[in-house]
């Protein structure tokens, strides 16, 4: 009998895990029956379609329906998160690959409460805050514009002006939309909420101040400054470093009146993660061998670097299975000359290059 309930709970959790996976918006026609949909077929959504997107929870549908423009901004956020994830993981065993025939664009990989799941959650929460704030400053949304609050503080040697990008609105929207699917009363929800917030802080913490001089030619008697969002690439780099140093945690419960549930390091000798660190609850699945059910492609056929000791090195990437070396023709521009005026003339140089592929 006990087993029956365990199985039922596990099933319910699996169903629930699919909900709220808003990054599917990068390829909104899923789940797909036909094989004619891929991430590349980027369908532009309109707000009327929001209620049909089964993977969104109710609050996400409401926010999706704000306007056509808002749906498209959310969609762009999902797309950018996936692009950045694929860039950051291009040398890893799991290269953030997407699959077509699943209810989740990443297959079942994120069912594990793993480091990779921590990274994807942080990055997508960050990407949404970023795209929303960017759209605000471009005047694309009715709900927001430039950040007027920075002007209240008056600095001495320069003045606020121009359009400061409103990361606070971006964060607020991201919290409302992305966190809507999480339940802090279950372990996974607690972990995801922590990582979502860490992602948003990675954006806020890297806002830049840029200034422009005004005044008589070159005098710079007036300096006007505003706050600008960092490139999403920078945010991806920061989160990648956090991913490498992510803390393995467990949930501890303290009964003091009401239940207080917190994430604490699994090993007591490890420092407590702060709000910008990524945290995970489970070890990762094996990314070496293909697993259709989880949408893992395995590393067979991946290009590796024979001389690298890192993740892209043949030893690690090929998981000890060895690799094959093929000679490939390589073409590049060479012997470039400047031709008066104003052209650069190059020749094409052909060479043979070794190319290593995992067995
Ligand atoms: C896939 O869909 C596109 C339009 O979205 C269509 O042009 C194409 O013929 C379809 N391909 C197949 C194999 O059905
Ligand atoms: C959080 O911890 C990381 C190291 O894990 C450190 O680099 C960072 O400065 C800390 N942040 C804060 C706000 O304390
Ligand atoms: C998805 O498609 C692949 C082949 O394209 C297949 O091997 C795999 O079993 C499918 N997965 C699911 C969950 O249907
Ligand atoms: C990920 O690796 C697979 C091979 O395992 C390759 O087919 C695919 O193109 C790669 N995807 C990206 C986004 O690099
Ligand atoms: C391979 O790795 C070495 C050592 O890390 C590096 O210098 C080289 O640029 C890499 N080659 C390629 C093609 O990435």
UniProtKB/TrEMBL annotation:
Keywords: Developmental protein, Disulfide bond, Extracellular matrix, Lipoprotein, Secreted, Signal, Wnt signaling pathway. This is Protein Wnt. InterPro entries: Wnt, Wnt6, Wnt_C, Wnt_CS. It is found in: Secreted, Extracellular space, Extracellular matrix. PANTHER family: PROTEIN WNT, WNT RELATED. Belongs to the Wnt family. It comes from Bicyclus anynana (Squinting bush brown butterfly). Residues 1-20 form the signal peptide. SMART domains: WNT1. Pfam families: wnt. Ligand for members of the frizzled family of seven transmembrane receptors.
